Amino acid sequence: MTMPEEGPVEPGPDRLADAVTQLTAELGALRRDVARRHLLDLACGVLVAQQSLTPGEAADHLAQLAETMDVGPEDLAADIVNGATGPSGAVGGPAPEGDSGPRAADETARDRADEDRTAGRKTRLVEAGAEAAAQTGGTVDEIAATLLNGGMRPLGARGLWLFRRTETDCLQLAGRAGVNPLEAAHWRWVPPATGSALHRVLSEGTPLWLPDGTSAAEALPGPAPGSARAVLPLRQRGVVTGLALVDWPGPAALDEPVRRALAGLAVPAARILDAGAPGTPEPGVLAPLLDLLTHPAMALRADPESGTLHIEHLNRSALDSARHVHGAAGRPLAQVFPAMHADLVRLARTARESAAPQRAARVPVEHRSGDPDPLHDVRVLPVGPDRTVVLWHGATDPGLSLSRVLGRLENLAAFEDDLITGKSRWSEQAYRIFGLEPGTSPVPLRRLAPHLHREDTGRLNELLMELTQRREGSHTVVRAVREDGGLRHLRIAAEPLLTGGVLTGITGVYQDVSAQHHTEIALSATFDRLTAAQTQAALRHQLVLQLQQAIVPEVPELQRLPGLQVAARYRPAAEEYRVGGDWYDVLPLPDGRVLVVTGDIAGHGIDSVTGMVALRNALRGLAFTGHTPGRLMAWLNEVTLQTHGHPTATAVCGLYDPSDRSLCWASAGHLPPVLLRKGAADLLEPPRNILLGAVPSAAYEEAVTRLEPGDTLMLYTDGLVESRHAGIDEGLDRLRLAVERLDPAGLDEQADALLAAVTGDTDDDTSLVVVRVS
């Protein structure tokens, strides 16, 4: 194979790192300058409005005031903006206990005012920084980091989670700061579970303060169950659009100043989520959906300034209710439904603010003589921050209900043949089924053959034989050929009419089942295709599984290596995700060193296995170049970037030298190895390197660990320690304790005991390599 070349063609990692550092610093300075200018412009705008100054005069006046008062221009600008709009999140609280005399009260009021002013400045500056990050193309994660570092870390907070509310009431993790990627992966989506703390805040719209953490039965994002948390609803235009969760390293006193500060920082967080939120459906999307409904339905939209409700669309049934108003769509609701206006406005406002459907048995509640018919079983559904859909039933008169039921039976027609007079009678629907003009002479059942497909006349004869000879009711399905050339599938169900034991007539129904027939054919074809696809997928799955077992056997046979004893185990994932991307490798090299590797490709399935095979084989070949683990990982990163499907992977790669018992190793975002020495287990701190396949031309730092005779080293993948209900740190601590509790035994016994003692609950596959120095 052709080896990668060394020399001048290799990119200069130091210069690249310097350039990235310089650009990052420049971007930070730019954002700080934008935040400063944004705040000063707001303050100048307030001065222009309040004192009738020109923008230039307002800027000069602001500079002179700052110099006279001996405060920074940004602090003064924050005071001016807060004085005009009120401090973000300012919440009044009780005065501190102590001397209650007039002088003490004055001092307390001044101290409280100073505290509020300082807190208001800080909140406004942080808010301006977040706005600047958003204006300069910052991601939600970067803006969340601005809020965390500028306003929440001084309060002792560790991390910030920003969840966006979806149309189905799921919570989607839109941004986070101070949280590692593995934690974030566990909380990417939060389904609308009944009674969960997050969804209680979402529905009630009130903050949740947990200074002592949560119970073990209720999991929330954060480092540990006992860590303090604050969950705040994020509102835009009066609607809860998401949540902000702030966590602390441990228990914390969430007193009134902390709560006021967090409430203020929730304001820019809500704007961040709202700016990146998907748009609500437009009337062009809602209208066809409403038109499919048989019950009345209309779409309402609230004017963003006045709040007045306007009708955007009415379906056919709703138009019948508003037939007294010409051109109802586009008019204010009060003009079209004046008697119901107040109740519908109240229901729509509640639905938008709570983001939950509202229901009323009857609107208006009190129906007076002369008013239009009330709306029954009214349901108001929120569709975004300013739009609602109203569904209802009309009058409950049984005659109207019966008309609607009969109208739906247009595919069902009655017939009756009088065998004594030779005359027949059809219901009106029969003419439409056969494509005949009303008034045309009905065709008796015994003379229906010319109107049927010639291959179906035998079925008609069998039906007539059942009715006339056996005198029993029966049914069949035939194809009716209409005069216009159309073909309809027709079910005929009939009964003989007997008078004194004599057959005097035939009665029955024709049912047009064309739609059902076509659906059955489509379902049958779909089932055949699905069966074929399932069979093909099962064969591919089996082949890939055999390939995976051949490359990564569950219990491999490893030969004795120079200076080492090695045992390896592979535990497949749960049955439905059986094919995974974990791998390990132990390979003696020509120079006497031993390559030891574990890795994990993101995801499951065939793509993961093929990617795993490509990386494992590539690393095997690269190892024979004799280069260090850091260089091998840099090459493997380039291989990953060129692999089909563009996978990402974590891995730890080590080269053991038996001559001095040293292990030189590098990690690409992988979990730390565990070293067991004289009964004590420690997690080796890995070099901080990026995972494979993330960015091109990445450099990987190395670490050297000196091993002693009897040392045992364990390399593994995340399936061993990950949990849906606990942080990764808890899983690693549980693994370390389990290693210390292992009985002194053979290496194979220890590997089996460790797999049995430590088990993650994410149904992920697991690789484990146990190495003991001879």
TrEMBL record:
- Which sequence ranges are marked TM in the entry? none
Q: Which UniProt keywords apply?
A: Hydrolase
**What residue spans carry the region label Disordered?**
81-122, 353-379
Instruction: Report the leader peptide range.
Output: none
All residue ranges annotated as the ANTAR domain in the record: 20-81
The cross-references to PROSITE patterns, in alphabetical order and at most eight, read: ANTAR
A UniProt-annotated Pfam family: SpoIIE
Residue ranges under compositional bias (Basic and acidic residues)? 104-119, 364-379
In its UniProt record, a GO molecular function of this protein is:
phosphatase activity
PANTHER family according to UniProt = STAGE II SPORULATION PROTEIN E, STAGE II SPORULATION PROTEIN E-RELATED
Q: What is the protein name given in its UniProt record?
A: Serine phosphatase RsbU, regulator of sigma subunit
